[in-house]
User: Fold these one by one.
Assistant:
Number 1:
Amino acid sequence: MTYEDIAEQFPEEFALRDMDKLNYRYPQGESYMDVVARLKPLVSELEQDDNILVISHQATIRCILTLLLDTPMQDLPYLKIPLHTVMKLNIPESGAITIEYIRLPVDCVDTYRPKPENCSLDRKLEDACLTVPFHL
């Protein structure tokens, strides 16, 4: 489903997610915080190794990077993760982690959506979709 489909068919769920994207749980789904809890043991292992390849969805990568970079949890749902991009993390023994981005030549739509200003349950469909990324 597109963002617009969800906003039109499930406006209350769409608004509830916009209100608290970090803790919102789709019906029969997981919240970002649920994913973080599942990933914490894995991230501890990642920090011990020096040559790892992780292939995953944007949401999971957001969680892993938030944990590795000590990013504030409230920023997690809005961490911009580029599609079709290899992200090489250099994790020194001491110092700041650096990220090298290697873009793959794949045409795609940017699915990043910033938090809308209006998250109320009674907002109009147009207001709910103001921050939806352009797509064909």
Number 2:
Amino acid sequence: MAFTLTIKDLHVSVDDKPILKGFNLEVKQGEIHALMGPNGSGKSTLAYSLMGHPKYEVEGGEVWFKGQNILELTPDERAQLGLFLAFQYPTAIPGISMANFLRTAVNAVKGGETNGNGQGKTGVPVAEFRKMMIEKMELLKMDKSFARRYLNDGFSGGEKKRAEILQMAMLEPEIAILDETDSGLDIDALRVVSEGVNVLAGPQMGVLVITHYQRILNYVKPDFVHVMVDGQIVASGGAELAHQLEDEGYDRYVKQASASQQVTS
């Protein structure tokens, strides 16, 4: 059974300013969707709202996944349900190794067996975790020394994004949201990160790639492309739509959205 993330008429504000204004989208396992739009259109607001960031105030709408309205769940419950967000600007945490961070994340999301007295979780056994981590790093062609480094401390932009992809590999979400993963990457780093996404994408994982530019889509091939302007999707199509945006920009869609607002106001 393939699961679907269904976003219905989502309205979100930040500091009392409306950002999402009736956003609708469905992302199924096995599909790759690209959400494109000019700066300030609400793309990152959508990503953080889906994962429950407290700064983003949901004013209306529903988001359904696995039979639950996830807007009623805490961020950790959403992650445990099978959602994942790769951040645009991952945080550095000196003193915490990648391996320790990943084990904490895996235990928090995937849990483990309930302990003998029925309280809490025992966590994923160390040997099982290490085997899983090595397998995923080999899959992503990552050097094992990466796991010993402090989380994002002194990492290049590309290394930070690769760390996010490794986390995604370990957590094995059904739906992954990549918030401007291409931001700040040079061509070589972009290709490496994109290869990691392509290795992990497949029938068991749906991917929502949020981006401003078309260039990541030269490597990660979307099934669907959506144009977002002023908090709503204003156009959808196939991969060819991304190439059209690269050639023409967003002006036409911005003007159409502005004209539509004037008519309805």
